[in-house]
Amino acid sequence: MQIQAQGVGGLRQRLRSRFRAWVNRRIPPSRVVTLDQRRIFIFPSRAGFFFGLCLLLMLTTAINYQNNMSYALTFLLATLFIIAILHTYANLSGLTIRALRAQSAFPGQQAEFDIQVSRRKQREHFALYLKWPDSTEALINLLDEDQVEVRLHTPLGQRGWYNPGRLLLESTYPLGLLRCWTWIDLDLYALVYPQPLLSAELPGLASDRPDGAAIPIAGSDDFYGFRDYRRGDSLRQVHWKGLAKGQGLQSKHYAAYADRSVWLDWEMFAGHPVEQRLSHLCYWALEFERLNEEYGLRIPDVLIQPGSGEKHRNEVLKALALYGVPERQL
Amino acid sequence: MKMLQQVPRNALAWIIISMFTLLAPHAGRIPVWIMLIYLFAALWRIQVYRGHWSFPGRWVKLVMIVSGFAGIYLSFGSVIGLEPTVALLLTAFALKLIELVSRKDAYVLIFLGYFVCITEFLFTQDLLMVLYSLLNVIIVTTALVALHQPGEHRFNRKTMRLAGVMVLQAMPLMLVLFFLFPRIGPLWTVPVKSHTAKTGMSDFMKPGDISKLSQSADVAFRVQFEGEIPAKSGLYWRGLVFSKLEEGTWSNLSYFEVPPKERRQQEVVTTGEPLNYSIIMEPTQQNWLFGLRYATPDRPGILAASDFRLYSFVMIEDEFQYRVSSWPDAQLETELSAWRREVELRLPDNDNQRTRQFASTLRAQAGSDEAFVDAVLQHFNREPFVYTLQPPLLPDVDGMDMFMFESRRGFCEHYAYAFTLMMRAAGVPARVVAGYQGGEVNPVNKTVIVHQFDAHAWAEVWLPEKGWVRVDPTGSVAPQRIEMGLEEAVASEGTFLSDSPLSPLRYRSIRWINQLRLRYDALTYQWQSWVVGFDGEVQFQLLRDVFGEVSAGRFAAALIGTWALVLLPVAISLLRRRETRPQRPLDREYLKVCERLASLGYPRYAGESATDYADRVSAQCPDWAEPLSRLTRLYTELAYQTPASAASEQQFHRALRQFRPRKRRDR
């Protein structure tokens, strides 16, 4: 019995992968997809089958009562179903779906995927339902506007590139009797950073390195200038003299100098597993960024000069995210 | 999938509208409390929508369902039969609205709506009702469309447009299916219309019955003659033959009262051409059919009884069409059997002695049966007898004595009764025949419309050598009735259709109303003969006429061919490319230039502005730089700066002519 069950399971697996390969051939991944008869599937919906059952009941009524107008009404509804095939198909046909952007995020977070649905023809499209296998769902109309941007959220998996799979776009408009759908691979990838992992302290500071001194973060004690007092500033920071002169409440602002840069080095966490190393490095990169310190990254095959700011941070995180990840074919 | 389960407000509004439009035609057939349930259900659902009330709990629902069942049982006395079933369906339809929460419920409700639509046809297939039902189908379909338009949070009349278009597109295909779909017999017996009142003639007659029937302006049947329409005075539509008189009531002999060897119709010698005609009867819930004298039916299922009337084996529940051939001059039953003679002479004992006495005296004075018939008719004619729609009520005992010698006011059944009674009393076999007399000729389509007020009773006497001869004593009293009709006969009385003041028949003198009425009647006849007459046999005939021979291959070819003929234009109109924005001539000219450049290897990028594009192309091909940049400058000026001056448009066209990019040899 079990062997047989396995056999069936294996068959199902094989069929599924066959099917996937077929869909891939039929609708290859692309950033922009315009829906046409190659890409649109259509089949009666559950309501459609129920409707068919009702028609059968109506037909038996017509036959049993030998009632010509009942025949006529039954046939009218049956042909309405046929006409609905064209209308349902037309609701998807000619739509263009464009991958806009995917937001990078940390594991466990929801990544935002932005796509745009636009039409080419001046006709109303109703009830377009969009969803990736694990994402949130969206239901949009294209009435007065020619294009609509849709944002879907999906929880992220492991570090590296995350592909949400094939986007399901379906509609049963106008009668709900037929379901018209497509599965498209928008070739849209979100970058998943390593999971930040706190380590008690930054071990093995590589001060002996010739290319820059890594120093512990000891707070900022070099005076930088004044700025308006903000809640949370220490009373010791308040520029009392200025206040006395009637300049308003100001704080003294301290900053670290640019040359105080830190190297986050692969070797700092020697002995830990790869993922854990990346997680620690990620944590510290975020920490330095938060403290407005400059930091550089040195991991196998990647060297990023010290810097700070969002662009720098993203570069560092991307390098960490893609460590050991095979190159994605673009 | 939760998102898809929402029911937009627009859909809810359309569902409620469709419920009431579906209910309307059933209104006369169902108890009032069901209509109240509809109002209540609509109110409840609207209050739920507005957040004032909540959906009913499980127990409340159960109570409502059970009490709905109980109410129908109490109102109809049973839950079996067509009317209770339909009432049940309608009640369920209303109650389902109260628990309409998700799209799934809406599907159930809407499909139920289609089914309610079909039940109406089981009661009537009238042309107006069919048109109304078509409107209902469109409304229900609109609700279905609205259900799939998320975000429509207010009632939108325009939703109906798409539903209407789709139904219209489906129409031609429906007609093809209608004609091609094979008609088969009933699969099993179904509940019948047990609660509909029987209409028209009943199978017994008491004085006063027919005058009551004559108050109705309903149509009894319509006749289409193949040849000339005979004179009105000859149109005696025989329906029932009353041979039995018991307790002052005439009734016909039931099939089993006739001994087996008398059941067969006696052979009739027919000479000359028959009158051929077809009749479409309105439903009567009875079995008898009408026809001119010596009528022979042309289809199985109709019995020609031994007293020469037509009888259908099945009750006439829907419009019923049949064709008849009649020989009005044929002699009927020239040989009278002993049993028949005895039956047609039988009289109850001791009733109306004075009239019987009078008859015997008159017979004795007359030399023959024929002379006696004339004498009685002359008596009616000479004495001050009055033909009236309002005859006085006669006593149960000796009623005819009262009529003959005292009141002398009566309707046709009084005269027929008295005449037949006198014949039998004098030993002449006679019987009362009931049916309709005359009819209105519709000049539009040359049909004869027979109304209920044309109901009539007359007599038949059996004379040796001649057989059964029709005698109409009413003609001796009111000859106008036979020649012109009831309206003229009672004109002085002013009692014609006095109970139905709104009947269009009362306004026959107003020309346009009458024209309209006759035209609609002609249409109704056309519709009935078409809808009613279309059965397996007619279908076979029709298909053979069209296809030559009926074969599966031709069937399929016809189906596919006609469907393609309809579906292709629909598909093309739906999928045809229509650009999102209509183009201005200016843009069209500019885009042509872009296309030309693209074909030379310099495509314009998506989102690239005209100026950027010109700069980029100019950088690559310096010899185009000057004309292209001028062209682009003029174009952008014209396109984005208003108002454009006439001069600059001319300049643009000049620039267009000057810029003729060609493939460069050096590349």
Describe this structure as you would to a colleague.
Chain A is an alpha+beta fold. Residues 206-220 of chain A have low confidence and may be disordered. Chain A has helices spanning 2-26, 46-65, 68-92, 240-244, 274-290, 310-321, and strands at residues 32-34, 41-44, 95-102, 110-119, 125-131, 137-142, 147-155, 160-162, 167-171, 178-184, 190-192, 223-228, 250-254, 261-265, 294-299, 302-307. The two termini of chain A are 46 Å apart. Chain B has 4 domains: 2-180; 204-507, no CATH class; 536-575, no CATH class; 585-658, no CATH class. In chain B, 48% of the residues lie in helices and 12% in strands. Chain B is built from 23 helices and 18 strands. Chain B has a 6-stranded antiparallel beta sheet with strand order 8-11-6-2-16-15, covered by helices on one side. In chain B, strands 3-14-17-18 form a 4-stranded antiparallel beta sheet. A 3-stranded antiparallel beta sheet of chain B has the order 1-5-4, with no helix packed on it. In chain B, strand 17 (455-463) and strand 18 form a beta hairpin. In chain B, helix 1 (9-23) packs parallel to helix 5, helix 6 (127-147) packs across helix 7 and helix 10 packs across helix 13. Chain B starts with 8 loop residues before the first helix and ends in a 9-residue tail after the last helix. At the A-B interface, helix 2, helix 3, strand 5 and strand 6 of A face helix 5, helix 6, helix 7 and helix 19 of B.
